[in-house]
């Protein structure tokens, strides 16, 4: 039973004095959750109450099945933007249709998470490299910023991308509601100021309270400033989202895109907090927790969720000791929904736009991009490609661009594996790279080449050209050419055929080809291809050190 409900493991050894920390942390998490729970649904065109549902039920799902004591699950800006892109195909749908579709996507994401965990695919989270993930999330953040134009101005903006919304706004300049602009800009500036002051009370919560009070005192709604409006005073009923206005293809592709982004950003955040809080993060176990959280959200009219940076940070800083803090937060948000939601009715939309804009601005990792530029110009280019994809081609296309950029980056890194010629140092055992050690000298008549990387179909021609080029540069007395395969993790049938061609070419020149330190999998591929049989046992070496005695015997006998 314990493995099925990790919450029991999390509460094992629970101490009574932890309760006050968990209650305090839970209330702090609920306070931080309110602004994003209200604002984030707007990104995807969903009703405000759906954000509250998605902030309550996932906490219960993760508390039951999630392995971490301190991670908090909830709405995430990047995930919401991908969700918005999926729901954009339902432009003619009613708000109720969008809610059902979002719930179906949450369920699908949950099932994908659990299936991936059962298949041990937690490592797939590393598929989007750090530079590409930074670029992608920064691009999403810029998209969120641009998406707030309508909330700041009161003008309905239909264009997408980076510049078209500004062009449309210029064309509709006479429709701008300037009091809304002033309110939004003021709240945004206040959020930036509060962020610099580092007050114990979260800036978004202060803005929500101030904007709500000001709205009540000065009748913002009567002055033409849009407000949130009434919320239902009921808890969502358990229901399966069956009437989905998305085709099966759209549902699966959309769920896959949301899953990939939420999983990648969620596990990156989890590992970051794990390093800070000194707790281990096991990807496959976290997948089960993420899956349970999303299924709980989908069954109660919520949308897809992942690790929430802000809520987890507050939980840890407030001293949360276990998932009890998450349960306390869920209870507090439920009370808000049932008894205090009238206080949310007057919240002005420009203030919510300011909260979203400030949150998006904080996700643009300028420091990370600067570091990538300093470390690797190539990786920086891929970060920009990923950012451009998210901004210019839309978020769903941006996911494809990010994945494609990752594949291209991997291919470019692997297409030309590094290699080095090896030699000996007098009086020392072993072989040494000639370009690195001045004392190392090539062995007369013997060439040893180390290839650092797999040999597969896409780089086999390059490796063949490289090996033949090196052989052409050898002195005329060269007798053996031995490939050090200790750093070759994989080969395929194309590589096996290429190595046989190299062996034949070398033999025609009077140069014997050999292989040392083959790993088990490459050895099996080369054996089944017949290459090792043609090479001969005398030219296959388990250890590179075996090459010298064998070569010396060959020279004596010949």
From TrEMBL:
User: Does the record carry Transferase as a key word?
Assistant: no
Q: Where are the transmembrane segments?
A: 21-40, 46-65, 99-121, 133-155, 175-194, 201-218, 251-274, 286-303, 323-340, 347-368, 380-412
Give start and end of each STAS domain. Answer: 436-551
Q: Give its localization.
A: Membrane
Indicate how the chain sits in the lipid bilayer.
Multi-pass membrane protein
Which InterPro entries does the annotation name?
SLC26A/SulP_dom, SLC26A/SulP_fam, STAS_dom, STAS_dom_sf
Superkingdom, taxonomy of origin? Bacteria
GO terms for biological process, alphabetical: transmembrane transport
Name assigned to this protein: SulP family inorganic anion transporter
Q: Which UniProt keywords apply?
A: Membrane, Transmembrane, Transmembrane helix
Pfam families attached here? STAS, Sulfate_transp
Example of a GO cellular component annotation carried by this entry: membrane
């Amino acid at each position: 039973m314990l493995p099925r409900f990790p919450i029991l493991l999390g509460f094992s050894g629970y101490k009574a004095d932890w309760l006050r920390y968990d209650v305090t942390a839970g209330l702090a998490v609920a306070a931080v959750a309110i602004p994003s729970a209200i604002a984030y649904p707007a990104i995807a065109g969903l009703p405000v109450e759906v954000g509250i549902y998605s902030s309550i039920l996932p906490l219960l799902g993760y508390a039951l099945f999630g392995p971490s004591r301190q991670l908090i699950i909830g709405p995430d800006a990047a995930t919401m933007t991908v969700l918005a892109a999926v729901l954009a195909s339902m432009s003619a749908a009613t708000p109720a249709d969008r809610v059902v579709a979002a719930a179906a996507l949450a369920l699908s994401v949950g099932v994908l998470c659990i299936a991936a965990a059962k298949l041990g695919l937690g490592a797939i989270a590393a598929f989007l490299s750090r530079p590409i993930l930074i670029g992608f999330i920064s691009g999403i953040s810029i998209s969120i910023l641009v998406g707030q134009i309508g909330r700041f101005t009161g003008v309905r903006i239909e264009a997408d991308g980076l510049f078209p919304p500004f062009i449309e706004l210029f064309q509709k300049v006479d429709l701008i509601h300037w009091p809304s602009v002033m309110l939004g800009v003021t709240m945004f500036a206040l959020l930036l100021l509060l962020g610099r002051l580092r007050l114990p009370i979260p800036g978004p919560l202060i803005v929500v309270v101030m904007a709500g009070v000001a709205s009540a005192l000065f009748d913002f709604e009567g002055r033409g400033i849009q407000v949130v409006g009434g919320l239902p005073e009921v808890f969502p009923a358990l229901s399966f989202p069956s009437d989905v206005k998305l085709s099966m293809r759209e549902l699966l592709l959309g769920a896959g895109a949301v899953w990939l982004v939420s999983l990648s950003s969620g596990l990156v955040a989890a590992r970051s907090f794990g390093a800070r809080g000194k707790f281990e993060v096991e990807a496959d176990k976290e997948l089960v927790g993420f899956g349970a959280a999303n299924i709980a959200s989908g069954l109660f009219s919520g949308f897809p969720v992942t690790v929430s940076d802000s809520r987890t940070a507050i939980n840890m800083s407030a001293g949360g000791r276990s998932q009890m803090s998450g349960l306390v937060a869920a209870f507090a948000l439920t009370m808000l929904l049932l008894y205090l939601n009238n206080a949310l009715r007057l919240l002005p939309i420009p203030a919510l736009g300011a909260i979203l804009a400030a949150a998006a601005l904080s996700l643009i990792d300028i420091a990370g991009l600067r570091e990538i530029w300093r470390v690797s110009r190539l990786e920086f280019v891929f970060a920009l490609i990923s950012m451009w994809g998210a901004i210019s081609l839309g978020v769903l296309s941006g996911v494809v661009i990010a994945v494609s950029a990752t594949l291209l980056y991997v291919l470019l890194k692997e297409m030309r594996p590094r290699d080095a010629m090896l030699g000996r140092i007098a009086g020392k055992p072993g072989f040494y790279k000639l370009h690195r050690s001045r004392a190392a000298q090539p062995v007369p008549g013997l060439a040893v080449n180390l290839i650092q990387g797999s040999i597969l179909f896409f780089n086999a021609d390059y490796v063949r050209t490289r090996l033949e080029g090196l052989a052409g540069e050898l002195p005329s007395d060269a007798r053996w050419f031995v490939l050090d395969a200790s750093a070759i993790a994989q080969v395929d049938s194309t590589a096996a055929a290429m190595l046989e061609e190299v062996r034949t070419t070398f033999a025609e020149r009077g140069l014997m080809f050999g292989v040392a330190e083959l790993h088990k999998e490459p050895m099996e591929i080369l054996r089944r291809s017949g290459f090792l049989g043609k090479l001969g046992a005398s030219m296959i070496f388990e250890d590179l050190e075996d090459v010298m005695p064998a070569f010396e015997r060959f020279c004596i006998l010949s």
